[in-house]
Amino acid sequence: MTAELVRGQNHPLPHTRLEIRVSAGHPVVAAVTLGDDRGRIPGAEAVAHPGSAALPGVEVPRQAAVRHRLAVDLEAIRDTVHRVSVLLALPVGGDGPVRFGAGAAPVVTVTAPDGTGIADYTITGLDRESAVVALELYRRQGAWKVRAVGQGYEGGLAALLADQGLTRPAELAGGIMEAVARGLSRSVAAPPPRVPDADRARQPAPAAGGGPIDYTHPSRRPAAPETPPPPQDPAPAAAPAPVAGDASGWSMDERLYNQVWGMFEDLARTTAAYRSACQFAESRLDQELDRVLSDPRSRIGGAGDAARAAAKAKHDELTARAQEALDRDLAQLTAESEVVEPALPAAYARWDSPVWQGYRVPTEAPMAVRLGDLHLPERTGLRIPFLARLPLARGLWVDSGRGHSEAAALLDTSELRGLALDAAVAHAVRLLAVHPVHRFHVQVIDAAGAGASAFAPLVEAGVLQAPPAAGAAGVSAVLKGLTERVDLLQMALRGGASDDLPPGLDTAEHLLIVHDFPHGFDDRAVTRLRYLADEGPAVGTHLLIVADRADAAAYGPVLDPLWRSLTRLTPVPDDHLADPWVGHAWTYEPPAFPVGSGVLRQVLAQIAEARRQGRPSPS
What we know:
By secondary structure, the protein is an alpha+beta fold. The protein has helices at residues 156-163, 169-182, 197-200, 252-294, 303-340, 406-409, 413-434, 452-461, 471-495, 523-535, 560-565, 599-613, and strands at residues 3-5, 10-12, 17-35, 47-48, 54-55, 58-59, 65-73, 83-89, 107-111, 117-122, 131-140, 143-153, 368-375, 384-389, 395-399, 440-446, 509-517, 541-547, 566-569, 574-578, 585-589. The strands form 3 sheets. Strands 1, 2, 3, 4, 5, 6, 7, 8, 9, 10, 11 and 12 form a 12-stranded mixed beta sheet that branches. Strands 16-17-18-15-19 form a 5-stranded parallel beta sheet, sandwiched between helices.
């Protein structure tokens, strides 16, 4: 049965040789881009379009038409290609509409070479757009899937190509439209079966009742077939077992990083598709019930009851199909998570991972660090690591306020503040642990001394740059020293004079932990803190603030830019990480050391020993 996709939904592909059929109420131009695992295309040579209709594994039509057939052979596509995007655009200068919203919604169908439907997608919701990414075929865990995209572009084909990373997109878009204007209208036939050259002459001609097509030249066809044709595709194979590191990248760390973000994207998309399908089912049910109630004939006999029952049955069928697709995708992601999580290096691993038992201080910094976990309500047990690229582009703010979290509502103020400080220490220890010694330093401002017990392991291990600064004088001294350092590094960076820095200036990355902000801060100290938040990350100076925003309410809107410049984290699970990509509110779960575990002191002891030796321990 052909799967009816909604925007964001994916579906497995049981075949590697496919036809993609396009039907629109007006002529459209069809093209295909071949991108990497992030959907980026290297250049114009990765675009199949009417002026260059064939690429390895792909062929597209040479003219605008109301109906198209595109041929795809996924086994013939280069190994570097991870996404095959199907594009539709309105031709320029014709008599047709100039925006998709002015005509019938295009329908895109993926079929097997024999015409058996696999998935179709009606691209709804378009208005002023004149180009759209209709579908994408993408590799996942060694298998191919199709995803309904429906991303439109008011800027047309040039804007679409630019979004996929093409340089000089307007030039290629113009060339495509010129090729359409002078090309001959035709459709692309399905690709022939992949058989050895010596066997191609023995392909049978089509029978009167249908059958395989003979693609050999008519003068070379034999009178009768000598052997039966080979099967066009093997039976659909079971989904391959997930493998850790099954993503692109130069190193295992990079492959795991890309795989984790691939899991995040898949969970976001499959959940968005499920929610969209359920909303569609509810909307359809409401419309059908309204029609029943507005028809006087439904009030006679049992016609109304039958119509309502039929509408409810269709609703239940749609939601059941959506749930089935969600369960399938979540099961695959759960299996992948169970394989990936134990393989993560220390920078990406949970604190209860066995990797910490063999921890050694690294000789180089990783590309990212884990700040916690993310999950959605559809499967709370499926947690995706929340990885942030290094060096940090933004400071961190551990919110010790109550917020809107249900978990926070069950705790009193002192408990929340204690958990927030513990979370901040966990983040700081992680950052210390994943950087080489003497390349990452930590300083602490604890103006009231309220965090002495939480900071005690850092103090005792001797991993702090100096004892925690207390009182207004300590706050002023630390901020003054860091702002002067940032000033010097900024001037050297802008002037290209890094070699002229003062001798002995510490160029390592710095993390400043500010506990119980704004206690001990005057107006000048607040100004310096805002400066560090804005200018510090570019030269390796980062903030980690533990604060309740309500405590700083006396400053009014002056501090709004500070809060916006920081990544807000919480000490308890909270649905606050907004995803502008698909609109989800992700539940963030903070990192925590296992109860009774000695991993904190073990890691700090390794860092302290490496510092005493004055060199990194071997990794």
